[in-house]
Structure formats: structure tokens, C-alpha cells
Amino acid sequence: MNLKKFTIALAAMVFFCTANTIYAEPLQVYGDVRIRYQDRTGDVEPAKAPGSHTITRIRVNMEAPLADKFSVYGRLAVEQAAGLQHNNGLYDTAGVFDRWGAEYKFSSGSVKLGKQDIVLGQDGLVLMTLIDAVGKDNQLTGATVTLKTDKNTTIQLIGGRLGSGLFQPAEAVKANLYAVQVSNRIDRRLSVGATWRRIAAIDDYSALIAKLIGYNTEFDTYSLSGNYYLGNKTVVYTEVGQSNADKFNKAFSIGIAHMFDKKNSMSVNYFKQDVQAIMLGNWGAPDFTVRNGSTTWKGYANYYRHQMDKSTLLEISDYYEKGNNTKSANQFRLNVIKSF
Length: 340
Fold this sequence. Notes:
- The chain has helices spanning 3-23, 204-212; strands at residues 28-41, 51-67, 70-82, 92-106, 109-116, 119-120, 127-128, 140-148, 153-162, 175-185, 190-201, 218-230, 234-243, 250-259, 264-274, 296-309, 312-323, 328-339.
- By secondary structure, the chain is mainly beta.
- The strands form two sheets. A 16-stranded antiparallel β-barrel has the order 1-2-3-4-5-8-9-10-11-12-13-14-15-16-17-18.
- A hairpin with a 6-residue loop joins strand 6 and strand 7 (127-128).
- The longest helix has 21 residues, at 3-23.
């Protein structure tokens, strides 16, 4: 960790500890340590190290209540890849203060301002920052307003600067994100949702780059999702959507999850999408997408999870993608996650 990163991390810790002393409220500290083995084959850029390696991640979350219903939060994170470097650079982070901000909670919702995680669509199908998103460029910097209009309906309004490490037409395109998300529980078995998301270039240079690579300067995505519970242990979920692109603009996914008992569960997911649907870029196999040269690709993302003890989770996953005119790509992952 270089001096600048160390200084930022130290200042953050001093701030949270000081806040805890001044306001005599308990400082909440929680997080996880994860060790992951992964094996990747069929990458579109073999020079960027497909193959086997181990990734270690440590995330420390801190939350300090400053007043009734008002708190500040932050996160220190480290993620390192042993051996071959991950192809999008997310896993060589020496140590960053990558989440910070303030949150106010009230009886029917909350307002969060700052650098934060977001989940859009069914399990983050439209956009999600929770998948290995360590680093200052892998969060949204902005605001999220959550409103619960009744016991079954929740509305989210989201806006802010999209980090360059998140899914965008190109890293050079600086963009803002705007989103509206509604979810409704129809009855004890069925729930539905709808999401609108816009990624908009923020300046002329970004707009020019987007046009040169064939993207709209304002890219809209619309999706509808649903969950249906087959008893108490099994749920079927799906999402369909499309973008405002002129062609190759549709996407579809479907999955089923089953909990065998309190310790064991699994899920099977299938997806198919056009290259300009811009929905599945960070879902399934987010780090070795084979969309280059393809107009449509499809694949699956499957999980098995075993709760080893109260704080330790074993997760085994397998991802596969195949473009219509590119080779297939596959990734196997074995995660051990220890929470504290």
C-alpha cells in the first residue's frame, strides 16, 4: 500500500473512531474475508491471463451513528490476485477507502448520499456493484432514495456518477447513471418488479467516444422481472428487457433456486441477450465476456452454497458463455467466505 492510500485509510479510521467518541454511540464494524480459487478458459484476450489463480479479498465496513436515524459509513478494502493478473484489474487493489457517505433512515424509507453499492434488476441483472466490486472506480457516487409506499411496494430513485470500473460502453466514456426501480409483492408466492436505467455521457468528449464505438450517448434499458415461490424452499425467477438501441437490443434470463435445508442451497441460471441490450454485462461471467465480435450470446451461471458454520460459507460456482460467432468461455470458482 503506497503512502497516499495509507494516509487516506488512516484518516478514515481516525474519523470514524473520533465520531464514535464524540457521540458516544457504538461504532459498528463488520465485513468478510474471502479466499477464492478460480479457473478460467476461453478468454477473448488470452494474453490477459486466463487460467488458474487464487484471489484474496478483505472488506471492513464501518458505520457510526451520529444522531437518531442518521449515520455515516465507510469501507476499507483490499483485494489481491496471486499469480496471474485478473483481466480487468479489479483484483490488484493494494488498499482503498472505496465506500463512504451518510444515510438517513425514516419510517417509510431512507436516503443515502455518497459512494455506495447499487443493485438494479433481478439479483442485479441490470447492474450490480456487489460482485467483487473492490476499488474506488467500482461504486456509484451519488444518491439513492428508497420509499416503501405500503407493506408490499418499494420504489427506488437512483442517480450519480458511474465508476469507470463498472459496466460502460468504454472506460473512456465518463457517464452518469439514472434509475427508477419498483418492486411489488402480489401475494405470498408472487412478486414482480420493473427497472428503468439510463447511462448518459457527461461531456462532449465522452459523447464522441461513445458514438465512435457505436453506442448511443444516452443509453436506456428497461426490464420486467418476477419471482414465484413453489412452496417454502424453491423459487423460480425471470427477467426480460431491452434497450433503446436500434437492433440487437433484447435480453432474457430465467433461473431456479432451491434450499435443501438450513445449510445447503443451489441455483441454476440461464441467460440469452443481444450485444446492445446492455443488461447482462456484469452478471453470469462478468470478467471474461465473449461479446466481442458477437451480436448475441448466451450461457449459464450456477451456484452451490454450504453454510459450514454460523460465519463461514463455502460457495462453488460455474459460469459459461458462448457468442454466436466467437468461442465459448468458462469459469469455475471455489469461494470460502468468513464473515465477522
